[in-house]
Amino acid sequence: DVVIRPVPIRKLEESVVNRIAAGEIIHRPSNALKELIENSLDAGASSISIAVKDGGMKVLQIQDNGHGIRTEDLPIVCERFTTSKLREYEDLSTIQTYGFRGEALASISHVSHLSITTKQADSECAYKATYADGKLVPAKPGGSSAPEPCAGNNGTILTAEDLFYNIRSRKDALKNIRDEYTRIFEVASRYAIHNSGTAFTCRKLGAPKADLNTLHGASTITNIRQVFGAKISNSLVEIQHKDQELQAEFKGHVSSAAHEMHKSVFLLFINHRLVDHSPIKRAIESLYTSVLPKGSRPFVYLDLRIKPEDVDVNVHPTKREVRFLNEDIIIAQIIDCIHNKLLSTNNSREFALQS
Ligand code: ADP
Ligand code: MG
Predict the structure, then answer these.
(1) Cβ proximity of 274 and 34 under 8 Å
(2) Quick check: 99 and 85 in contact, CB under 8 A?
(3) What is the pLDDT of residue 101?
(4) Radius of gyration of the chain, Cα coordinates, nearest whole angstrom
(5) Residue pair 107/26 in contact by the 8 Å Cβ criterion
(6) Which residue ranges make up each domain of the chain?
(7) Which atom of ligand 1 lies at the shortest distance from residue 103's CA?
(8) CB-based burial of residue 178 (10 Å sphere; 0-12 exposed, 13-18 middle, 19+ buried)?
(9) Would you state the CATH architecture of domain 14-213?
(10) In this predicted model, what pLDDT tens digit does every residue of 291-337 receive, in sequence order?
């Protein structure tokens, strides 16, 4: 008989562990971009410019005018679990920033060639640093790995090149660069719509014109028109609701029942995070199915704010999903609010026709 013996158990090399972990956080260029946009917003940027080559696989660059990174922090900024945002686990329940785990830059540095140029407002010059696998490396072979002084604007430029150069299977799976660019544009434009206090641009490197160009201080609806066109933005009605007891509130813009679209569009923000939340989506879709002509789909921009201690943002490595307390009650309130709005706008339209 064949005896099957166990293979010895060994501890994985740190670099292998880090690369595997990085692959779980950064699935594709658009995940990296989401993390980078959130860092720029956390840094108080009022302007964010994104430049992309080959769907972000070749180059993914983001420039902001935020507070920059302290020069003395540059050596550790790309190590795993280094953050300026969280100190104690308990802080998670009141956290006001997008970031808290200190994993994004580390992850990106493990699966791409990453460089950071950053300048604080009160600093004489900018510093440029190059990273591999969490650590500073020389920009050129044989050079020094110390951050180099250089000219630059206040704020930070992050450039990730050759994403997944060291994970071949992942790189091969992401061959459709048009599809990747679409996802990048989706993330950038959604954050642009939600953050009207920040000007966003998104362009393909070398293209004469940006695909996204929102202005600092433009209204939400102006930004929706910029991205989705006048036909959709004109069809939207505003919703708003506040629950004192749960300390939850939401507002948004949703398509009125009169307008037909062939693809659902959801821009769902929970405490400013762009998330997927299937129960909310399903509930809204089924409401619209009962109200809209057959086969047409809703457009929904929803800005939901919940007491931070009622939300768990740490359920998914990409933070793409969140859970919150009293989900059923809050979803029912969203549905009621949209339903009433649709009824009242449709009635007034009928009314207008009759009179
Ligand atoms: P986290 O956002 O969870 O703290 P990251 O790996 O995304 O972790 O970033 C690590 C740290 O680098 C942040 O805590 C922040 O201090 C700094 N940082 C990253 N991006 C920027 C930026 N665009 N501007 C200023 N500081 C930044
Ligand atoms: Mg971050």
Answers:
(1) yes
(2) yes
(3) 86
(4) 23
(5) yes
(6) 14-213, 230-354
(7) 6
(8) exposed
(9) 2-Layer Sandwich (3.30)
(10) 877 777 899 999 999 998 899 887 887 778 889 999 999 999 999 99
Residue 187 · residue 33 · CB < 8 Å: yes
Pocket test for ligand 1, best of 63, 105, 120 (most atoms within 8 A of CB): 105
Amino acid at 264: S
Give the distance, in angstroms, between the CA of residue 119 and the centroid of all CA atoms in the same chain. Answer: 24
Check: CATH 3.30.230.10 for 230-354? yes
DSSP conformational letter for 167? -
Phi, psi angles (nearest 5°) of residue 44: 75, 25
Q: Which residues line ligand 1 (CB under 6 A)?
A: 35, 39-40, 43, 64, 66-69, 77, 83-85, 99-106, 156
Q: What is the DSSP string of 9-44?
A: P-PPPHHHHHHHHHHHH--SHHHHHHHHHHHHHHTT
* Dist. CA 186 → ligand 1 center (Å): 22
Closest protein CA for atom 7 of ligand 1:
104
Please name which of 221, 208, 306 lies closest in space to residue 267, comparing C-alpha atoms. 221
Residue at 48: amino acid letter = I
- State how far the Cα of 264 lies from the Cα of 246, in Å rounded to an integer: 29
94 secondary structure, DSSP code? G
Asked whether 131 and 137 are in contact (CB, 8 A), the reply is yes
pLDDT of residue 352: 41
- pLDDT of residue 43 exceeding 80, the answer is yes
Instruction: Match 């992309």 to its residue by tokens.
Output: 52
Which residue(s) pair with 53 in the sheet?
A: 59
Task: Please state whether the predicted TM-score (pTM) of the whole model is above 0.90.
Answer: yes
> What is the amino acid identity at position 71?
T
Q: Enter the DSSP assignment of 215.
A: P
| For ligand 1, atom 13: residue with the closest CA | 83
pLDDT for the residue 348:
52
Using CA positions, which residue lies closest to atom 9 of ligand 1? 102
If you measure from the C-alpha of residue 317 to the centroid of ligand 1, how many angstroms do you get, rounded to a whole number?
Answer: 17
What integer pLDDT is reported at residue 347 of this predicted model? 59
Cα 131 to averaged position of ligand 1 atoms, centre (Å) = 14
3-state secondary structure at position 87: coil
Same CATH topology for 14-213 and 230-354? no
